[in-house]
């Protein structure tokens, strides 16, 4: 490795924050998966999709990046970024090639994928390729995202779907785009699970066992996310969709 080619590892650590160290050997190409999503909450479908992308696309690492203020969710209720990041960290902590990053959660303003990819491209050397992994529904909309041409230039896209999902809309949108997107679609049976299904189950006090790691379930209950608010003295207040509350005696709330 010549001096010119050498990657300044010490300097990059400062810029990288919690992002992985990649690109040190200029003789090879590195593939970094970026798992983009709101993760409200993260579930086993996301984890299986990321593992499948890791294997199928021969990635070096998958970085789960909860969106700070998701671009298309303005005016909608989204759990605090700090909670979504914490659940993502818990869910990914036992997989050696998964990482959770605060990169978007800590950024001011609305989260735009093009901004994220530009920042990453400025941090990493050119032998690091980016694979932006998200739901195929989101990929179908990518042509309408801010600075879509930059996304097409800077990253490969990976659209994860459940079996039976009709990809015609996504494929048509990509084909009609003036920009050259490189998209791979992955069929992931576990994506029958969705974050909204988990939120509904928590609000109905139903079990989340086998739908998300137990550590995430514990976090949801401990921090009273998604509509269940334990009171201090022996009862629980349930907040329904209209914001009304009803009392409940201790012991009636499922905690698993
Ligand atoms: P969304 O509209 O909430 O999700 C669309 C569908 O994709 C849902 O079925 C969702 O299921 C699924 N999904 C989301 N992330 C996934 C993932 N990583 N793997 C597998 N399935 C996933 O999408 P979103 O969460 O707001 O946004 C997804 C990503 O696209 C984020 O990184 C976001 O920042 C980016 N985005 C960027 C722009 C922009 O730059 N203008 C606009 C929109 C989105 P679950 O609900 O179960 O996750």
- Major β-sheet strand ordering: 3-2-1-4-5-6
What is the string of helix and strand elements?
Answer: HEHEHEHEHHEHEHHEEE
Residue-averaged pLDDT, rounded?
86
Shape: globular
Bound molecules: NADP nicotinamide-adenine-dinucleotide phosphate
End-to-end Cα distance: 53 Å
Describe this entry's structure for a reader.
By secondary structure, the protein is α/β, with parallel strands linked by helices. The chain is built from nine helices and nine strands. It has helices at residues 9-16, 44-56, 81-92, 113-123, 136-140, 148-154, 168-176, 195-203, 214-222, and strands at 30-37, 61-66, 98-100, 128-135, 155-161, 183-187, 228-230, 235-239, 245-249. The strands form two sheets. Strands 3-2-1-4-5-6 form a six-stranded parallel β-sheet. The chain has a three-stranded antiparallel β-sheet with strand order 7-8-9, with no helix packed on it. Strand 5 (155-161), helix 7 and strand 6 form a beta-alpha-beta unit. Helix 4 (113-123) runs parallel beside helix 6 (148-154). The structure holds NADP nicotinamide-adenine-dinucleotide phosphate. NADP nicotinamide-adenine-dinucleotide phosphate (NAP) is lined by residues 35-38, 46, 49, 67, 70-73, 111-114, 133-135, 137-138, 145-146, 160, 191, 194-196.
């Amino acid at each position: 490795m010549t001096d010119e080619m050498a990657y300044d590892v010490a300097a990059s650590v400062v810029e990288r924050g919690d992002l992985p160290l990649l690109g040190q050997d200029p003789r090879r190409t590195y593939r970094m998966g970026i798992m983009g999503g709101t993760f409200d909450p993260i579930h086993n479908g996301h984890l299986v999709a990321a593992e499948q992308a890791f294997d199928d696309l021969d990635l070096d690492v998958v970085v789960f990046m909860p969106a700070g203020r998701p671009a298309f969710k303005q005016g909608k209720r989204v759990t605090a970024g700090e909670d979504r990041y914490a659940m993502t960290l818990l869910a990914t902590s036992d997989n050696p090639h998964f990482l959770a990053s605060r990169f978007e959660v800590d950024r001011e303003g609305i989260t735009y994928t093009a901004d994220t990819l530009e920042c990453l491209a400025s941090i990493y050397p050119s032998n690091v390729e980016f694979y932006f992994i998200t739901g195929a529904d989101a990929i179908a909309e990518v042509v309408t995202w801010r600075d879509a041409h930059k996304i097409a230039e800077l990253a490969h896209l990976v659209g994860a779907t459940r079996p039976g999902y009709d990809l015609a809309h996504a494929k048509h949108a990509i084909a009609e785009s003036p920009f050259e997107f490189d998209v791979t679609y992955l069929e992931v049976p576990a994506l029958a699970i969705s974050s909204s299904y988990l939120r509904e189950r928590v609000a109905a006090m139903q079990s989340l066992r086998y739908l998300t790691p137990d550590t995430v379930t514990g976090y949801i209950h401990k921090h009273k996310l998604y509509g269940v608010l334990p009171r201090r003295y022996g009862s629980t207040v349930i907040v329904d969709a209209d914001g009304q509350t009803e009392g409940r005696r201790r012991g009636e709330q499922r905690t698993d």
